[in-house]
């Protein structure tokens, strides 16, 4: 923890030393949607349930101007990860979602601002996101039995204590004054390092025998949200 704090401190010192003329501070709240990978032997458990419900993430960001239209953004965000399943909609509905872990995430992004109107900008952005897994080593097991369907699920969280995602985003910025503005944030974050794996053993009504399914979480998700920003000019 101390090592991470020192690294973060030097990142911010470097950030403020290269910023020119303008530094913006923002507060962000976004709705996130998991992008888990599903493998289902019986093709009766589908994976749209956790993607269609959102969990809130929030954070604080610092944006510095590097050149005329080129900016760098560093943020500290907190996100909760979820994993779940939904039974095939053609059968009697069963769905479940479980909390997996909390992650503190530090994106370091390059942004290029394009003016659409006098106070309206669009900003594509890209960069790495450094993430922690606060519940690393945890194990969860549960079952669902409604007398017609039996579903047993277990989650194993011992694959990655830290992981890195790549963020590809697009922001719409509305500057009401030279110093104050609102930003509509959207992005997709993807990585290839396995973080949590869920195993499902199930037997459903009108199905023959037991089937297995696997859900893999690589930390991937997409989000859309809103942030308030205040610019310090010098």
List the helices and strands and how they pair.
Blueprint: H1 2-18, E1 22-34, E2 37-40, E3 45-46, H2 49-52, E4 55-65, E5 70-87, E6 95-112, E7 114-117, E8 120-132, E9 139-145, E10 150-156, E11 162-175, E12 180-190, E13 196-203, E14 211-217, E15 221-233
Antiparallel strand pairs: 1-4, 1-15, 2-14, 3-5, 4-5, 5-6, 6-8, 7-8, 8-11, 9-10, 10-13, 11-12, 12-15, 13-14
User: What spatial form do the alpha-carbon principal axes imply?
Assistant: elongated
CATH class: Mainly Beta
Oligomeric organization of the protein chains: single chain
Beta content? over 45%
**Which sequence of strands runs across the widest sheet?**
1-4-5-6-8-11-12-15
Stretches where pLDDT is under 50 for at least 5 consecutive residues are: none
Integer count of domains? 1
Helix content: under 10%
Order of helices and strands: HEEEHEEEEEEEEEEEE
Give the overall pLDDT as a whole number: 82
The CATH architecture is Beta Barrel
- Give the N-terminus to C-terminus distance in angstroms: 34 Å
User: Structural class from helices and strands?
Assistant: mainly beta
Over the alpha carbons, how many angstroms does the gyration radius reach? Answer: 21 Å
């Amino acid at each position: 923890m101390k090592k991470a704090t020192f690294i973060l401190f030097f990142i911010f010192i470097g950030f403020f030393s290269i910023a020119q003329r303008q530094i913006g501070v923002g507060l962000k709240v976004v709705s996130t949607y998991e992008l888990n990978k599903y493998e289902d032997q019986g093709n009766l458990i589908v994976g749209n349930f956790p993607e269609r419900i959102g969990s809130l993430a929030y954070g604080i960001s610092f944006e510095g101007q590097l050149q005329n239209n080129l900016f760098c953004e560093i943020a500290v965000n907190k996100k909760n990860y979820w994993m779940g399943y939904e039974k095939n909609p053609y059968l009697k509905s069963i769905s479940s979602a479980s909390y997996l872990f909390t992650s503190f995430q530090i994106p370091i992004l390059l942004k290029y601002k394009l003016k659409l109107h006098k106070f309206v900008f669009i900003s594509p952005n890209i960069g790495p996101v450094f993430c922690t897994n606060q519940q690393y080593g945890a194990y969860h097991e549960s079952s669902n039995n409604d007398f017609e369907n039996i579903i047993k699920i277990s989650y194993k969280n011992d694959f990655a204590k830290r992981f890195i995602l790549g963020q590809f985003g697009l922001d719409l910025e509305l500057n009401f004054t030279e110093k104050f503005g609102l930003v509509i944030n959207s992005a997709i974050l993807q990585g290839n390092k396995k973080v949590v794996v869920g195993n499902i053993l199930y037997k459903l009504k009108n199905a023959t025998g037991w089937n297995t399914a696997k859900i893999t979480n690589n930390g991937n998700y997409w989000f859309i949200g809103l942030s308030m920003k205040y610019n310090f000019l010098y």
